[in-house]
User: Fold this.
Amino acid sequence: MRIGFNPAKNSSNLIKHDVSLALAEQFDWLTGLVQPARTVGGESRWKMLAALESIVYAVIFTRRTDMFWIISLRHASHKERREYER
Assistant:
């Protein structure tokens, strides 16, 4: 599955979370812990918790045709890390 994101949103995500949305391309999308997040403007959003090099991340995304459209990507909170490690 392809990954896409808005370059302007990537810039703001880097400033806010110090993580590039492009990092999502490295995740194993088959083993991440996916759960519904919320619906915005009729579009369902999902949260996936995934680890990369022993760091757990939270990625918010939606499906757009044949790609995962990345909305936000950040280091997981303590609560999210515990949830992922269960």
Summary: The CA atoms of residues 36 and 46 lie 5 Å apart. The helical segments are 7-17, 78-85. The first strand starts at residue 2 and ends at 4. The chain has one domain: 2-85.
